[in-house]
Amino acid sequence: MTVSTRRSDDGQVLVIQVQGRFDFSTHQAFRDAYEHSDAPVKEYVVDLTHTTYLDSSALGMLLLLRDHAGGDVASVVIENCNADVRRILSISNFEQLFSIR
Amino acid sequence: MNLLIAEDSDGDRMILATLLRRLGHQVYEASDGLEAVAVFIKFEPDIVLLDALMPTMDGMDAARRIKALAGTRFVPVIFITSLASEREQAHCLEAGGDDFLLKPYSRVILEAKINAYSRMLNLHRSVMQQRDQIRTQNEQMLAEQRMARRVFDNVAHTGCLDAPNIRYHASPLSIFNGDVLFAAERPGGGTLIFLGDFTGHGLPAAIGAMPVAEVFYGMAAKGFGAADLVTEINQKLRNILPVGMFCCGALFEADGKQGTIRVWNGGLPDGWLVRKNGERLAIPSLHLPLGVQPPERFDSTMELFTSAPGDYVVLMTDGFPESCDAQGDCLGENAVRQVLAEIGPDDHPFDALMARLQAFTGHPDPADDMTLCCLEVIAQGAVSEVTESAPESALSGPGSWHCVYEVRDRALADFNPLPLLLHICMEVPGLRRRSGEVFTLLSELYSNALEHGVLKLSSEWKKSAEGFSLYYEERMRRLSETQGHHIRFTLDHEPLGRAGRLRIRCEDSGQGFEPKEKAMNAPTNSGHEYSGRGMGILKRLAKEVSICGSGNCVEIVYDWEFPAQGVITSQ
């Protein structure tokens, strides 16, 4: 499974983990990860610890998640990016839309 | 199922044939290898049963020929043999046989093998059918893409991409990889180039490119600047693209007259300013890609650089640094930096980068999804050529009109009135042929009134590099203090037979620019002082230039006429 999810202890944070390449092949799995959450989510965390590569369609998927989470009022955190992934996020200036840590 | 049996023993052949006919198969018979090949050619059986040892031509040879004749068609060849040694059996398979049956054969095994090969044949046929279908569909798609490409070219015509100072690589079908490259001359001179990379591939990426082309060429021709274009492209894409789809892009405007380059980069890899003096400046992406931010949050701030003839601007899509070698390693952005650092003053950055790419990938042709564009900054005359192709009729359009347009307060900072004023003048067919000159007149008058009249900036500052950035910083700061100020354009046009006269009066609310006498008398080609140069341009283009009031008002008279009929004039 390349995309897995878990809830924080209080259930308010949904953590989505992506393994390996985060590209178009992950599209459906990534959507399923947040679209079918049964309980309300206050904050989304995309954990990229095990993500080796990210392409522009992944950037598009992140925008879809942000839109799903409420657009401009969304709380979406992207964390634990490796240097290559971080570079791709910053070329597109995604720190203006997401908190990246 | 149609079967071929080749067996030199008549008795054995008859037994086998009878057996297979009883199982419901059509059977053709041959008594040696040569005959087997002839029967195969004539009846194209589905499965071939060959005796290994036969006179004239043995089973091995026959198998080789039959396999060669079958080509991509799958024809199972089963050897019937009493050759018991493993080596001989291996020979049968090496000759192209798929299987063998040992004599004396068992009916049960024979029937089971025929059935197994029958299933395999069916599977093979459906795979082949699907392959052919995919091949046909792919050919159809490529034909459609070629057709769509032609439509796209008509909408997105190549603009001035073929200008001698622009070098680029873009695959003919790059549009279906989401890459777009547009270039246009501004009416008063200067070049606008847009390089974009849409997310995704194929049709969705290509569709998004169409409106961008329309906005780019439409607005460029009307005299809008780079910041206006990028704002409009963002809004258009934000409206039409679904969330999650966007366009990484960079737009730059090179103005040879002012010696400036303005760049906006949102999401493309670093662009580069390669200066003739050896300096290399990265032009990093400072913005979100186009189509992501709503208009109210969009930041169209351009980065400003000074430039001189012989400098180069280089832009690329991520396909360039991400080009891979045979091992799957990427070229990387450091390689780009290194190539640009190492090139000599006479090397063209485009050639150096393409050579490095080819050496790295080992392929003569770069991948479809990479675009590289390089503009050489050239010295630019003050006057652009008169467009001879413009409509010639003097009969349509208004001849006699008068118009006053005043820009006030905040609008001085936020709004560019030049496209609107140019548009009004372009209603006159005789002026349409001279849009470059008219635009130059309007923009020189306007920037003079705004920068020196209203904002009281001194053109002295622009003489040095530090002063240059100070000038633009001050310009930005003072633009927030334009309350109570105005710039008023009064345009008046009258027809004079096959000619006409345009008067433009430009007044500002400033206190006048004092060294007006000096500016008026400055040698027109000195090229040292911008205000002097601006005034020189006005004097060269217009019939009369006069400064009125306290120097806060300039009036010019501009005459035009159609060339005499039947005489070809070159302006």
Structure description:
The complex is a heterodimer of chains A (101) and B (571). Chain A has helices spanning 27-35, 56-68, 83-91, and strands at 3-7, 13-18, 20-22, 43-47, 51-54, 76-79, 99-100. The mean pLDDT of chain A is 90. Chain A is α/β, with parallel strands linked by helices and 101 residues long. Chain A is globular. In chain A, α3 links the parallel β6 (76-79) and β7 (99-100). The relative contact order of chain A is 0.18. In chain A, α1 (27-35) packs parallel to α2. Chain A has a single domain, classed as STAS domain (Transcription Regulator spoIIAA), CATH 3.30.750.24. Chain B has three domains: 2-126, 3-Layer(aba) Sandwich (Rossmann fold), CATH 3.40.50.2300; 156-376, 4-Layer Sandwich (Phosphatase 2c, domain 1), CATH 3.60.40.10; 401-561, 2-Layer Sandwich (Heat Shock Protein 90). Chain B is built from 16 helices and 20 strands. Chain B has helices spanning 10-22, 33-43, 59-70, 86-94, 107-155, 202-221, 226-240, 333-342, 349-361, 411-414, 418-425, 429-432, 435-454, 465-478, 516-521, 530-541; strands at 2-6, 26-30, 47-51, 77-81, 99-102, 166-169, 179-185, 191-198, 247-255, 260-266, 271-274, 280-283, 303-306, 312-316, 372-376, 401-408, 486-496, 499-508, 544-548, 553-561. In chain B, the strands form four sheets. Chain B has a five-stranded parallel sheet, with helices on both faces. Chain B has a five-stranded antiparallel sheet with strand order 6-15-14-11-12, with no helix packed on it. A five-stranded antiparallel sheet of chain B has the order 7-8-9-10-13. In chain B, α8 crosses α9 (349-361) and α11 runs antiparallel to α13. The longest helix of chain B is centred in the N-terminal third of the chain and has 49 residues, at 107-155. Chain B is elongated. Mean pLDDT of chain B is 85; it is low at 382-391, 515-530 and 566-571. At the A-B interface, α2 of A face loops of B.
